[in-house]
Structure to design on (294 residues):
């Protein structure tokens, strides 16, 4: 068994320097530092929690990486009380709360190993370089599969990004989260509609090892999710669909997503959302704000 080294001394770099990966979670970065230097991950965490200064400075010393570079790669470090001039550099960056494995091919090319956990945003469901599915349902590198030959999935992805350009990241995020939850509930009730079912059958036939995985189902539902997101995020359709007369909105949904069936009944997830959540506010901003002066 390899003998583990002693915990690192303050102000001294570790023998093997580990570069950060863009948007990497702090937990993932510390895990990679520990593995590369044969250290106890719990030991590094104990040092970080024990010292009163911000984590970014210890990580900077251990890896010989400037604090600014670490914070630009891992904006969440700004939440652990760094200096205001460092936090200022992150103004306008998206707030990312969802974490998922990065594209394993990108991680290997970066020299970070095959598994890196990153913070992501709702539109980052496909790796633009390798066309791997990295969206909902991906728990590890085995869940990532190629969608390069599936324009039914890649075209909605481009539409997804265009919606953000048109309506803003926050508004599309709210719409996407609602549309995703609604489509999953429809899937549970009906095993979904013909378009999504056709995509799923084709993916399952081409990728039998992925059949019945959450990632494969999520990829098959994605086009329907984006069609509903486009309607929910649109100010024009918001005015039309606002209760008590959402009939024209529901006609659009039945034509584009639900095979002619109009969502109805008190238990329907779309009806419930229209009646209870349509006008609800989202107080959390999608971008980091300027730090307040002390």
């Amino acid at each position: 068994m390899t003998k583990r080294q002693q915990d690192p001394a303050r102000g001294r770099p570790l023998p093997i320097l580990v570069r950060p990966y863009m948007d990497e979670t702090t937990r993932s970065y510390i895990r990679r530092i520990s593995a590369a230097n044969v250290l106890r991950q719990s030991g590094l965490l104990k040092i970080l929690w024990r010292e009163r200064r911000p984590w970014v400075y210890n990580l900077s010393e251990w890896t010989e990486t400037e604090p600014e570079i670490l914070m630009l790669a891992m904006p969440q470090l700004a939440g652990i009380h760094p200096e205001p001039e460092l936090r200022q550099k992150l103004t306008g960056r998206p707030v990312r709360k969802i974490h998922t494995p990065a594209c394993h091919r990108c991680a290997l090319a970066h020299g970070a190993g095959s598994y890196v956990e990153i913070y992501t945003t709702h539109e980052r469901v496909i790796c633009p370089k390798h066309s791997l599915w990295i969206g909902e349902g991906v728990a590890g590198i085995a869940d990532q599969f190629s969608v390069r030959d599936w324009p039914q999935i890649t075209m909605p992805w481009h539409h997804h990004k265009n919606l953000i350009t048109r309506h803003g990241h926050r508004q599309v995020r709210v719409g996407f989260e609602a549309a995703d939850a609604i489509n999953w509930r429809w899937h549970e009730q009906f095993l979904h509609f013909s378009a999504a079912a056709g995509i799923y059958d084709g993916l399952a036939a081409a990728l039998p090892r992925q059949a019945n995985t959450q990632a494969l189902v999520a990829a098959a539902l994605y086009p329907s999710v984006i069609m509903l997101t486009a309607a929910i995020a649109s100010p024009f359709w918001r005015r039309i669909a606002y209760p008590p007369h959402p009939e024209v909105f529901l006609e659009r949904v039945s034509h584009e997503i639900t095979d002619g069936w109009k969502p109805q009944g008190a238990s329907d997830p779309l009806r419930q959302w229209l009646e209870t959540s349509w006008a609800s506010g989202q107080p959390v901003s999608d971008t980091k704000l300027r730090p307040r002066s002390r």
About this structure: DSSP finds 13 helices and two strands in the chain.
